[in-house]
Amino acid sequence: MKPKSKAMGRVACLLSASIASLLRGAGSFDEHPYSLSASFKTPMDTLAGLTDWAQGINYVYAITTVVVAIVFLAVSIPLVYAIRRFRVSDEEWGTLVPPKQVHGNAILEFTWTIIPVILLLFIAVPTWQIIFRQPEKHQVPANAMRIEVIGHQWWWEFRYPELGITTANELHLPEKTPVYFEISSADVIHSFWVPQFGGKMDALPGKGAENHLFFTTPVLQHPEKKGGEYYQGQCAELCGLSHALMRFEAVLHEKAEFERWATVFHNPPVVQTDLEKKGEQVFMQCMSCHTIEKTPSADLEKQLLAMTPPAHKAGPNLTDFGSRRMIAAGTRHNTAENFHDWVHDPSSIKPGSKMVSLGLPQADIEAVAAYLRYSTAKTY
Ligand SMILES: [Cu+2]
Predict the structure, then answer these.
(1) In the listed set 238, 264, 290, which residue is the last one of a domain according to the structure?
(2) 64 is a domain residue
């Protein structure tokens, strides 16, 4: 399809879905989950909302589209009519008399004030309904899973306090589960966004500046597939040089699979070959910024840090790195080649990266690659 006809198709789709949802009436989005643009699905399609929260937003979006379409027609049809009907020729131009003035006509002025007010109410009431579905902290259902989301230039940290898990760039979620995100930032303002799960929440730096987002994770679209379903996430607030490369993936699991992921996460790395053993040694140079839990060096570090509790570590937690599909915050596939390029010169992949090039010899990069990509891989 040409881009133009695709765009037209989408507009038509949105309009018809809008009219359909209006006919269904307010409040019915629960019983009628729909994705407005399933036929044009792309990985970051906000219109293909899957969660209750995303569908609520699309519902307001649909109503707004209908209202603005009505306004558009109510203005443009009389306009086109007037342009044609009252056109004057060059000869008539000098002979025109000004039309009758309506200034001060109370009925007219009242009418064109009240109509926009009513139209705005049509948009405002459902908007409030949806916004107030976001609970206050004390209203969060007891069965909701709590996840801390911390934005860093330019990667995402995810902490599951109830499970004792800290990970990065892959947000693992069980399906059909209410989740309460506590969103903050370690440096500048970021914005947490999984388009298909509904958007967006600013990640603000500073104590007490935490924002929240609550939704119920969707059902798996392809439950027969093992290993989870991947949904694209992206920082949605310009946050510096590599803002556009600050991505992540949300991985949706069947509940039992999620439990397995959460259990095996805590397994220590399995160091098998000599190369991996060497890599474990090389990784000592990376420990100032990265952590791999359940390693001797991590234990030592814990003892040292017990005296001065740590702030954020500068780099992502790599405990389950071998299982990650992507590296460099969701921008490259986790292949040997990409790993090499990343460790060799991070800034060539992400301009301004806060990871420095350590100038490691080739053999050391290969060793640490083996350690990180294989020893820390967890099967679940
Ligand atoms: Cu950002």
Answers:
(1) 264
(2) yes
Q: Where are any strands of DSSP class E within 218-333?
A: 229-234, 247-253, 326-327, 332-333
Residue 91, domain member (yes or no): no
Dump pLDDT digits (tens) for 69-114.
Answer: 999 999 999 999 999 998 888 888 888 888 888 888 999 999 999 9
Phi, psi of 166 (to 5 degrees): -125, 125
Distance 325 CA to ligand 1 centre (A): 20
Query: 244 alpha carbon to ligand 1 midpoint, in Å?
Result: 8
How far is the centre of ligand 1, averaged over its atoms, from the C-alpha of 199 (Å)? 15
Residues 341 and 256 in one domain: no
Span from the CA of 246 to the centroid of ligand 1 (angstroms): 6
Give the N- to C-terminal CA distance of the chain in Å, as an integer: 41
- Please check whether residue 94 lies inside any domain of the structure: no
Q: How far is the CA of 58 from the centre of ligand 1 (A)?
A: 24
pTM: 0.84
Q: What is the CATH number of the domain that holds 371?
A: 2.60.40.420
Question: What is the number of other CB atoms lying within 10 angstroms of the CB of residue 41?
Answer: 11
Q: What is the distance in A from the centroid of ligand 1 to the CA of 239?
A: 5
Q: In this structure, are 21 and 113 located in the same domain?
A: yes
- Vertex 325: Cα angle to 311 and 178 (nearest 5): 65
The residue segments making up the domain with residue 53 are 3-85+102-131
Q: Does residue 48 belong to any structural domain of this protein?
A: yes
